[in-house]
Structures are given as C-alpha cells and as structure tokens.
Amino acid sequence: MSNTFETFTVYPTLGDETWDQVALKCYGAERFANVLMRANPAYGDVVFFDSRMVLIVPQLASAAPVAAMPWNVTYRYA
C-alpha cells in the first residue's frame, strides 16, 4: 500500500490527544483513526501526542451511494 496522497491537510496536535480524538475532529468519527495511522507511520508508536506534532490528514474518498436493500423499500399497493 502506498502512502502517497493526492489531497491532504495537516493537523497540529494538542497535548495529550489520541488518534481517535484527532480522527473525530478531522473526520467526524473515531473509526477513521486507522486512516491517520497509515498516513503517519513515523508516529505509529505514539499513544498520546505532544503539542504541535504535525499529522498528515488525507482526504477521504467519497463513498458511492448505497442502493436501498429490498427489505428497506416501501412498496405501495393500489
């Protein structure tokens, strides 16, 4: 897997922040902490960040719309 990102921003950490806290601030969900970890392998052993450590924050690819499942479709009968 390549760590080359077409679009990214940088994020200066606050003292004692964790991966999931940064993911929540940057992406709106903690589940994207793994994206940040893969983009910043030099900090892989860090649990609590010091102030002003600079992380690369890749832009997430937009998800394709998911088709409605047959059991979630409302049918109207005449």
Characterise the protein shown here.
The protein has two helices and two strands. It is an alpha+beta fold and 78 residues long. The mean pLDDT is 84.
Task: Walk me through the topology.
Blueprint: E1 8-12, H1 19-27, H2 33-39, E2 54-58
Helix pairs in contact: 1-2
- Oligomeric category: single chain
- How far the N terminus sits from the C terminus, by CA atoms, comes to 53 Å
| Shape assignment | globular
SSE string? EHHE
* Rg over C-alpha atoms, rounded to the nearest angstrom: 18 Å
Total number of strands: 2
Strand order of the largest sheet: 1-2
Number of helices: 2
Helix/strand-derived class?
Answer: alpha+beta
What share of the residues lie within helices?
10-25%
Q: List low-pLDDT spans.
A: none
Mean pLDDT: 84
How much of the sequence lies in strands comes to 5-15%
Largest sheet, if any? 2 strands, antiparallel
Features:
single chain, 78 residues, alpha+beta, two-stranded antiparallel ribbon, 2 helices, 2 strands, globular
Short description:
The protein has 78 residues and is of the alpha+beta class. The protein has helices at residues 19-27, 33-39, and strands at residues 8-12, 54-58.
